[in-house]
Amino acid sequence: MRDHASILHVDLDAFYASVEQLDDPSLAGQAVVVGGTGNRGVVCAASYEARKFGVHSAMPTARARRSCPHAVFLQPRFERYSQKSREVMTILESVTPLVEQLSIDEAFLDVGGVRRQHGTGKQVAALLRQRVRAETGLTLSVGVATTKFLAKLASDLSKPDGLLAIAPGTELQFLDPLPVTRLWGVGPATFRTLDRMGVRTIGDVARLDEALLVRALGSSLGAHLHALAHNDDERDVVPDRDTKSIGAEETFGSDLHTEADCRRELVRLADRVAARLRAAEYVARTVTLKIRFADFETRTRARTLPVATDLTATVADTARELLDHFDVARGVRLLGVSLSRLEHAAEIQQSLLFDDAAAATHAADEQRAAIDRVTDAVRARFGDDAVHSATLLDGDRGR
User: pLDDT per position in the chain (399 positions), as tens?
Assistant: First the structure.
């Protein structure tokens, strides 16, 4: 079992209905039902205002109309929901590359590798909830735990618009009084079997001998429920695709108007994103600068490097060179640095054995790499503020 509560389950609240309320403010606070509106239609989603009247997903629309006749019934707009889902997933992936999307509105995250940058699992969850609300207008419920099973259970219990973190060492105490139906795999038939055995809570399951459960439910289900009742769930968060990019950006409280100020901020962003790259054990070949001006015009410019890198200095130097293509005097509202064309660092190390030119470049950069490793180690022990680039302290001397 993991030592830290670093697994997050995130779930967008009443997603389809929330998007409709977001796009049409007149629907805020109203009962909204999304789904087929014909006689044979089925409910896809219902706002919490509609759920108070017993409306839920998969319910026939005709029945939903009888239960909540004053609700607003809308046809689904799947393209719009996909767009908003992508916005949310992009925010999640900007914090950790380990995002396993389960559906259009929920995902697992493993944030164990970003503790130095973003803090504990609970702190990351709070950050994500704030960012999703600010940047997309949607609300996110999050469960934080040491396992996928418990994180999902925690997010369900935190709804709507909540955060529930289960501290390591308290899992069994938390699970003990919960109804047995909270265990994955307990449907109506299994519930009836357990109820006849006098087993009504997860704690009851945990206290049963596994062999007894196996005899009553079969070897697969019995062992499965016994393991979950003890929070025994070793599944890792597995992204469904390779990480495409790692980035960091910042919107400033007041616009920046000088190259010196912009370059200092780029050093800060490059430091942050390169550290995340190293933590994920990647190197990157392309550096992209994103800039948003005071009038909200947004531009990007990218450069592909001859050799993939994870060096803070190389990323910072490249980003600052890209900045030269823009007139920052007009006012800069946002800056961002992202790294793409990612490759696993271990694979690059292997390739150096067969590429003399690349090996020579790598050797020349080894001193910078050593500095980065020391910086990462110091920050891991003493916090992000323990080490700063001199550029951030002494103006633009590093340019």
Answer: 566 889 999 999 999 999 999 999 999 999 999 988 776 788 989 999 999 999 998 889 999 999 999 999 999 888 898 889 989 999 999 999 899 988 889 999 999 988 888 999 999 999 999 999 999 999 999 999 999 999 999 999 999 999 999 999 999 999 999 999 999 888 888 999 999 999 999 999 999 999 999 999 998 899 999 999 999 998 999 886 555 778 888 888 889 999 999 999 999 999 989 988 887 778 898 999 999 998 888 899 999 888 889 999 999 999 999 999 999 999 999 999 999 888 877 655 444 433 444 444 454 555 556 655 656 555 454 444 545 555 544 444 343
User: What's the maximum distance between 2 C-alpha atoms anywhere in the chain?
Assistant: 76
Q: Tokens standing for 164?
A: 């529930």
CA angle 162, 22, 69 (to 5 degrees): 90
Please answer whether residues 246 and 283 qualify as being in contact, where contact means their C-beta atoms are separated by less than 8 angstroms. Answer: no
- Please say whether the beta carbons of 141 and 13 come within 8 A: yes
**Among 392, 96, 83, 359, CA closest to 260:** 392
CA 362, 368, 373 angle in degrees (round to 5)? 105
Please list the residues that pair with 73 across neighbouring strands.
33
Q: Which residues are catalytic?
A: 106
Tell me how far apart the alpha carbons of residues 311 and 181 are, in angstroms, rounded to a whole number: 50
Cite the DSSP H helix spans in the chain: 15-23, 48-51, 61-67, 78-95, 115-118, 121-136, 148-158, 171-175, 188-196, 202-207, 210-217, 219-229, 259-279, 312-323, 345-351, 356-382, 390-393
Angle, CA of 101, 18 and 151, to the nearest 5° = 40
Angle, CA of 296, 300 and 302, to the nearest 5°: 170
Is 103 within 8 Å of 12 (Cβ atoms)? no
Domains of the chain listed by start with CATH number: 15-78 (3.40.1170.60), 172-229 (1.10.150.20), 245-393 (3.30.1490.100)
Q: Is the dihedral of CA 324, 326, 331, 336 positive or negative?
A: negative
Joined together, the tokens standing for residue 200 give: 């009504």
